[in-house]
Each structure stands twice: as C-alpha cells, then as structure tokens.
Amino acid sequence: MTSRAVAIRCLVEQNRSKEPVDQVLASLFDQHPPKDDRDRQLAMALVYGVLRHRQELDAVLQQYSKTALKKLKPLVLQALRIGLVQLLFMDRIPESAAVNETIKGLGQQPKWLKGFANGVLRAMARDIAGVRQRLADLPPEKRLNHPDWLVSMWKDQFGLEQTHALCLANNRLPPLTLRVNPHRVGRGDFLAQLHDRGIMAHPGRFTDQAVLLNDFHDRIDSLPGYNEGWFHVQDEAAQLIASFFTDLPSGAYLDGCAGLGGKTILLDQVLPPDASLAAVDPNAGRHTIFKENLGRCHCRPIPLYATTLQDFARNPDQPFDGVLLDAPCSGLGVIGRQPDIRWNRTVEDLEKLAQSQLEILDSAATLVRPGGVVVYVTCSLSTIENEEVINTFLDTHPQFSILPPRLCGPAAELVTEQGFLRTMPTQGLDGFFAARLINRAR
Fold it and tell me: Which of 50, 98, 215, 305 reaches 20 to 30 Å from 248, CA-CA?
C-alpha cells in the first residue's frame, strides 16, 4: 500500500473511531509495512498536515467541488484533503504527483468516484495560483483549524487576540525537544556531538538541560548517546516540573501517574541521590517500555506498582514527602504535536476528566505526610481541568495550600499570580499547567 493510500485510510479510520492518530497509523504500518523510512515519513506528513489544516482545506475544497463536502464519501473527502495539502503546503512534491499518486491511493474504487476526485484535484492544480489566493482570502476564523467550541472556550479564557495566536501556533510543527541527563553528559558536550554530525540543535531558553532540534526527521535512536542514556525526549514545559522538586528534602517520593516514565526519569535526575522513588501505573501494556526507558537512562531502582493510584492509596507502605500527579487529561496543550486531539475532544470530555482528576487528587492527599507536597500537572489549556480542579480540591482540603515553584530568569514569567505554572504554545512550549500543594497539617 502506498504512502498516500495509508494516509487516506488512516484519516478515514481516525475520524470514524476517534482513536489517537499515532495508534491508527502504527496499526496500518503493521499491516502494510512501508518500503522505507521515506515512505513512512511521507504518510505521517500527509496525515498530520491534513489534521493541522483541515478547516482551511475544506473551505478551499468547497469552492472547487460541485458536491457539498458533507455529502462526499469519507474516502473521497480524505483523498481530496490529502491531494490539496500537497498542493498548498508541500512544495517539494510536484503538482502532477500530488494529483496522480493521490488518485492511485484510492485503490479499487468505482471509476466515477475516482473520476470525480481526479477532476477536482486537477482543476485545483491547473489553477494553483487561484487556489493559493483563495486560501489567502479566507477570513481569519476559517484559518484557525480548531473546532468552534474550543475557539469559543479559549476566547473566554484568553481573549480573542491570544486565542488566534494560540490556534496558529498549534498549526505549526513544534521542534523536537530533548532533556539532557546531567548525570551522563553535559549539555555543551552533547550539543557539540550533535553539531559534529551535522545535526542542527540549540539550547533551550527556559531550562538548563533542554536541547531543541528544529528540523530533525530521523529516528531518535540514531542520535549520539541514545543507548548511553544521555537524553530523553521531553518538552521544556514538562522539564519545568523539576522546579517543583529541586528545593525539597531527601525522603520518599511517588510518581502517581507514571505512564511511559518521562517524568519519572525527570524526578530521578533532580531528587537527592538518597531519596527513594516509586511509581504507579495501571496500564500493564506500558510497563515494558517504562522499564526500558528507565534502564536506558540509568535511573536508581524504582519499583513500579501495576495498579491505580486510588487502589494504591488504600494500603500504602509509607507516607510520602512528595507525590507527582501527571493527571490524565484532554491534551489540549499538546495539539501542536498531536493535531487529532482538537477534532476528538468535547466539552463533556473535559467535565468527565475533571471529575476523574479530582478523585486522583483526593487519593494523593491521603498519601502525603504533613509538610509534604502534591504536584498536580496537566498538558491541558482548559480551566475546567486546571484552576477549577485545584480550587475545588482546596475547598474540600483546607489543610492544603498553594506553594509556588522557585523559578528564575525567563521561566519566572511563566508563574501566574496565583502561584501556578502555565506555559503556552505561543511561547514555543507545549501548553502545561502545574500546581504545587503543600500539606500544612500538624
């Protein structure tokens, strides 16, 4: 199956199932292995390009299609989007290839159906200057490429100007960001190794261990020092969570929502060497990768409990000095990296997630000794999951209060008046929210 055929079918299936697009792509690649990395990368670029530009693609397509887009078969609609994203946003692909290979990607479809798609794409290819002008003439709201409910919510939270800037930032491909392991290599030495191999990289702005690669499309394990544990992939916003733990004493700590271990590795690198660290994650399918990631980065021994935090909290071995909750959330802050999120979420999803987040916080509160902290983190830009969750928690847990992180330099500007950490894609970061809550009970 060609790259375009995979991309078309991925978009059809993702729109139908609402499953994460990377999982849909991985399944298709397993069924139809790409010929090489270039084919794999092209399929991914086509899928992610459509998801980032879907609204404006449809606005232009409708001006060339005699049939309303909502009446088109899903396979045809996605093929037209795939063809147009190449014509408008992928300059290295010849117009003839963008049309012909996309039509081939439809496979064994009725002749009239392929003829319709071919006619629309060829009409746009012949009038490419006009197509580009129609794109430029679209009103700003048609170029945001976000659902109306999400734009409306962000307007209420951030105002019109910042919302437009946020949406446009989400439509750009973010850089690959690494966190250098300070126990294995210095950031300067790592940057020198990258430059020696012709890999363009520069230090991050907000954290001392961040390295940004703006135009890297190869495999992560091809980077120098991968097997030696010199780095792991982590946005600067996530790396800033270290600031909530660097001023805490040695003691017992818990990663209560460990996932694949990215923030567990972060905790290992910033906690005192004699501190103990444990992790909890109920998804057994992630445990092998979790252990591989921690092993590669040479972390201290970290027991992993295969259970939910709620169940773990019913019979803990000990109280903790700090609990990190990287809470399951909507992911609205990482739309730039996972563009399908914007089309998959609803307001009702946020409200359900907020209830779950409160339950997790309630459990964490029982695990923390007096003087200990709970650090609540989401990669969301919704007050429903962030400020409202924290305020509700504080109303029902008066022994807890907000303890702002200690940040300096440019990072200090990321702390709100309330003492929360909030980062935005408009700052070149993933959208993150974090609150440190200290148990002041005696």
Answer: 305
Residue 257 a catalytic site member? no
Q: Write down the H helix ranges in 74-233.
A: 74-89, 95-104, 111-126, 128-137, 148-158, 160-170, 187-196
Which burial class, exposed, middle or buried, applies to 381 when counting CB atoms under 10 A from its CB (0-12, 13-18, 19+)? buried
Residue 12: CB atoms within 10 A of its CB come to 18
In a domain, 273, yes or no: yes
CA distance 152 to 131: 29
How far is residue 267's CA from residue 261's CA, in Å, rounded to a whole number? Answer: 10
Q: Are residues 120 and 246 in the same domain?
A: no
Tokens for 92?
A: 């290295």
Same domain, 214 and 287: no
Could you say which of 167, 297, 299, 379 is catalytic?
379
Q: Do 6 and 29 contact (CB within 8 A), yes or no?
A: yes
**What is the C-alpha to C-alpha distance for residues 336 and 282, in angstroms, rounded to an integer?**
27
Work out the end-to-end distance of the chain between its first and last CA atoms, rounded to an integer number of angstroms: 65
The boundaries of the domain holding residue 210 are 176-233
% the chain with pLDDT above 70: 100
Residue pLDDT, tens place only, 35-89? 888 999 999 999 999 999 999 999 999 999 999 999 999 999 999 999 999 999 9
Decide if 163 is inside a domain: no
CATH assignment at residue 184:
3.30.70.1170
How many structural domains are present in the chain? Answer: 3
Last residue of a domain, one of 143, 163, 187: 143
